[in-house]
Amino acid sequence: MALLCRSIFNSPLHRVRLVPSNSNPISYSSKFTNHRNPPQTPLSCTCSLSSSMEAPPQGYRRNVGICLINSSKKIFSASRLDIPNAWQMPQGGIDDNEDPKVAAFRELKEETGVSSAEVLAEVPYWLTYDFPPEVREKLKHQWGSDWKGQAQKWFLLKFTGKEEEINLLGDGTEKPEFGEWSWMTPEQIVELAVDFKKPVYKEVLSVFAPHLR
């Protein structure tokens, strides 16, 4: 599969060959728990019904995810600098006493330089994924806290600016995380994500599907 994308240096569009997700030699699984009506068979991610300001499941870092779409209803995704061939939607931690919606706009600007956006929808519950053991150990040293994984509040935002606004150097407050970016279909978003995030991505895109048609 080939995809047009821009680099962190905002170079002209160029064609990049993307490696299918099944080429990733590491595969992870996570469990799904519906806290209202637990299923008999474990599924793929954890859903915890709550309002934006209610606490997520214990042991999980509070986080926001941003599904940013353009006028063509394609979704913004960027390639991680630290994981080859891994693409993801913007996300980041929620500060103490910070409203998740405020955190979503802050993280979007920090990671992509984008501030021209409006909220279309949000997933009305926390979505939780577990870190693979080696990722958990790495982040334990990086963050100074041992989290099982992340509990995310997801927001669907519509990009209202011009593409020149997108800058993977961000707003200069944080170290860049991404190398290239592109607008993708929902199927591409899931296919190119790391395995342990795929279940959450599928749930997010299912909730936002009416806005993506």
Your description of this structure?
Helices cover 21% and strands 31% of the residues. The chain contains 5 helices and 11 strands. Residues 9-44 have low confidence and may be disordered.
**Which oligomerization state do the chains in this entry correspond to?**
single chain
Mean pLDDT: 82
Structural class: alpha+beta
Instruction: Output the number of helix runs.
Output: 5
Low-confidence stretches: 9-44
Order of helices and strands: EEEEEEEHEEHEEHHH
Q: Count of DSSP E strands?
A: 11
Helix content: 10-25%
Q: Whole-number radius of gyration?
A: 16 Å
Shape: globular
N-end to C-end Cα span? 22 Å
User: The biggest beta sheet, please?
Assistant: 6 strands, mixed
Strand content: 25-35%
Summarize the structure.
The protein has 213 residues and is α+β, with helices and mostly antiparallel strands. It has helices at 100-112, 133-143, 186-191, 198-207, 209-212; strands at 2-7, 14-17, 46-49, 60-69, 75-80, 87-88, 91-93, 117-122, 125-130, 149-159, 178-184. Strands 3, 4, 7, 8, 9 and 10 form a 6-stranded mixed β-sheet that branches.
